[in-house]
Write a structure and sequence with these properties.
two-stranded antiparallel ribbon, 6 helices, Uricase, Urate Oxidase, EC 1.7.3.3, 2 domains, urate oxidase activity, 8-stranded antiparallel sheet, globular, peroxisome
């Protein structure tokens, strides 16, 4: 005898390009990839081959395009919330809906005379913005947003010295090294219902991460990661947790002495693997009043 336990299903890889046309401010161009997963009263589809309650995944795909045409929002969080609400409202067998939206980075082309072109765009990097939005039928939204593939590099103010050594350690101290990483940042909103401008919050967090990385006197990846996360929590009160994943983008100095040349810390060989992988989550301590009430 087998019993159906946790289960969900949906549609993944729903790709969408949306152009908002304005005769006054120019156009906007968005490229999203959406995943929809639903939970609910679907046990009979597994146990009895009964499809009477199964919402086709093709219908979910169509729902994405339908709402994309109707929505006026520009933030991926707001669109995901609208999609979750629509699914729960219109299909009584759904108990919870989960939506992921990824957005690629497109910006208006700035021409050689420093003019922003109103209807032409460029994809300047592989950076992706994303969100995960979930709500049960009688519950509140949970929203986790972030960005990935944000590649950054420091060519100064980075060292790694006095680390733990054993008999297999061959790495030497470095007081002036290149520090490159591919940032994955994920943050959790403390009260999702209180956020009115997700896009503004995302850009604020991104700017904070970049500003800190650029200015920090780094003693290690861990040292800089913590400072970046702490700055976000100190500055953005709507976020109560941030997780940062920062793998090394190694650039190894090339030995030029065999060619009769001196490498003045200027010529490097980039390598992809193996590489260091550093990940840490930071949370804001609970208010003192909440702590004292539990004592």
């Amino acid at each position: 005898m087998a019993t159906v336990a946790e289960n969900r299903y949906g549609k993944e890889g729903v790709r969408l390009v949306r152009v908002h046309r304005s005769p006054y401010n120019g156009n906007t161009f968005d490229e999203w990839t959406v995943r929809v997963l639903i939970e609910g009263d679907f046990n009979s589809s597994y146990t009895d081959a009964d499809n009477s309650k199964v919402l086709p995944t093709d219908t979910m795909k169509n729902t994405v395009y339908y709402l994309a045409q109707r929505t006026r929002t520009t933030a991926i969080e707001d669109f995901a919330k609208e999609l979750v609400d629509y699914l729960i409202k219109h299909h009584s067998q759904i108990s919870a809906a989960n939506v992921d939206v990824d957005r690629k980075s497109w910006t208006n082309i700035v021409t050689s005379n420093n003019v922003r072109h109103p209807t032409a765009f460029t994809q300047g990097s592989n950076e992706v913005q994303f969100t995960n939005v979930r709500r049960s039928r009688h519950g509140d939204f949970t929203i986790v947003s972030g960005l990935r593939d944000l590649k950054v590099m420091k060519t100064a103010d980075s060292s790694f010295v006095q680390f733990y050594r054993d008999k297999l350690t061959t790495l030497t101290d470095s007081t002036d090294r290149l520090f490159g990483t591919n940032v994955l940042a994920t943050w959790t909103f403390e009260d999702a219902s209180a956020i009115t401008d997700y896009e503004k919050t995302r850009q604020q967090i991104r700017s904070l991460l970049l500003d800190l990385f650029a200015a920090h006197q780094s003693q290690s990846v861990q040292h800089t990661l913590y400072a970046m996360g702490k700055l976000v929590l100190d500055s953005v009160k709507s976020v109560n947790k941030i997780q940062l994943t920062m793998p090394n983008l190694h650039c190894l100095p090339v030995d030029l002495s065999r060619f009769g040349e001196e490498n003045k810390n200027e010529i490097f060989m980039p390598i992809d693997e193996p590489h260091g992988y550093i990940q840490c989550a930071l949370t804001r301590p609970p208010p003192k009043a909440a702590l004292s009430s539990k004592l």
